[in-house]
Amino acid sequence: MTGSSSLPGPGAEDSPRDRGLGPRAAAVLVFGSSAAVLVVEIVALRLLAPYLGLTLETSTLVIGIALTAIAVGSWLGGRLADQVDPRRLIGPSLGVSGAVVALTPAVLRTAAEWAPALLLLTASSAILVPGALLSAVTPIVTKLRLTSLAETGTVVGRLSGVGTVGAIVGTVLTGFVLVSRLPVSGILIGLGTLLVVGSAVVEWRTRRWRGRVTPALALAVVAGGLGTAVAPGGCDAETRYHCARVVADPDRDSGRTLVLDGLQHSYVDVDDPTFLEFAYVRAIASAVDAAFPEREPLTAHHLGGGGLTLPRYLAATRPGTRSLVSEIDSGVVRIDRERLGLRQGAGIDVRVEDGRLGLRALAADSRDLVVGDAFGGVSVPWHLTTVEAMADVRRVLVPGGLYVANLIDHGGMDFARAEVSTLDETFEHVAVMGEPADIGLDRAANSEGGNLVVLASDRPLDLRATQKALDARRTGWRTTTGDDLTSWIDGARPLTDDYAPVDQLLQPSTTRRGD
Questions:
Q1: Is residue 322 within 8 Å of 349, Cβ to Cβ?
Q2: How far apart are CA 128 and CA 131, in angstroms?
């Protein structure tokens, strides 16, 4: 008979109520599974950061895999729901995804340390499998809730809206609450536990506990927790942005290295702040010492804090110096205070804020010195590299003030050239310090890349005094400016807020060192 509104199919002899899936239960399942997909996506990005870096490419990769999982899961879920009793699908989808999610931290960290060639495959599977299974829940539940064509639009629209709200809540909850309060491994194990418990509840409600796999899935969650405890690559602390460790120097009792996402970011001597281990820090100190009279107190702003090596040095060598530090990661600041000996009243004011916003809030002509040393793992915060950002640096510097920045690049040094070109657009006088091969002064040697330090000011730079200070600290570094620097820049395009492909220009090191 034409115009029939019935929708026969697998399990169609039962109403939704008989199947143990009323409208509220359906909404909870769709909401929870959609939220879980986004939790997995965001936490996976954080879990991969120590090994792949928090770059645009890493973010794009994770988002692409997650969207693929959603597409595949939605398609297969709908197809299977038309061929199999949907009541048989929901519980296993939740349970298996929960087991995979709980095992992810241990498996991924083990692969990264012991089989790095398999890292991308492992990471892809850890996102694809649970993402697809959880995305299949919405079409399966929709099939169970549909009983006539007359309500198709209402049911599909309602559940689609609920799923979207769940994804929004999962995103906001993870980004603003969970990551700042829990380790990422704890988030995934907790989510896995909730999914397995949800699977058991669904099995009981819809099939009166005819499923037999729930105990095995619970064991997988337990194994994930135990595996995470013994897996390599652990952190002393998981901050909002980094996997952080503090490593004692075996050759210097008071020496500590701050390691963020596997890279050495800062070396601090907690007893002697004038001891500078990394060559680039010695180069920055040399530039500052050459630019300002000895022991003259300065008013400085630091874009990026890390271990606060340079603010401590300035406080020790220039009593009365006031250093304002913009550090975006509150967890790193906590480590500075608890593990790296930062004390109150040292003339160092650390603000937990984005560096660009902190710079914008400063008054014009208020700083003698601005230091740029902000990095996120192997990536560079692009919004701190542009002509517009450098114009703000110039605005806050007093006439004749100095901007000094640490740059890291390898290979063709494309990012470093572009950033120096950017500064050349903004300041009257620019110079670069680095290994001779890296800055074009030793063409016979191969450039290995690494750290460079760029100086910029509206007054002439005393490069003779700077070189003398570099030599005194035995850095082996040289300085270049003028025509030699122009030749090294080689026409690189300046970076702007509208054009700053930093992640594409930057060539990271193949090692796990920060200096």
A1: yes
A2: 5
Q: Which residue has the tokens 């929004």?
A: 168
Contact 319, 277 (CB under 8 A): no
Which helix (H) or strand (E) segment holds residue 265: the answer is: strand 263-269
- Considering the chain, what is the average pLDDT of its residues? 89
pLDDT, position 514: 41
Token pair 């079409």: residue:
139
CA 320, CA 284: separation in Å to the nearest integer? 19
108-131 as b/e: b if 16+ CB within 10 A: bbbbbeeeeeebeebbbbbbbbbb
246 membership: H or E segment, kind and range: strand 243-248
Whole-angstrom distance, CA of residue 191 vs CA of residue 177: 14
Per residue in 328-378, pLDDT tens?
Answer: 999 999 999 999 999 887 899 999 999 999 999 999 999 999 999 987 656
Secondary structure (3-state) at 212 = coil
pTM for the full predicted model: 0.83
How many whole angstroms separate alpha carbon 354 and alpha carbon 392? 14
Q: What is the largest CA-CA distance in the chain?
A: 97
Q: pLDDT digit string (tens) for 28-67?
A: 999 999 999 999 999 998 888 777 777 778 889 999 999 9
Identify any residues that bridge with 260 across adjacent strands, giving them in sequence order.
244, 263
Using the Cα atoms of residue 483, residue 456, residue 281 and residue 53 in order, give the sign of their dihedral: negative
Question: Which tokens hold the place of 264?
Answer: 């050495």
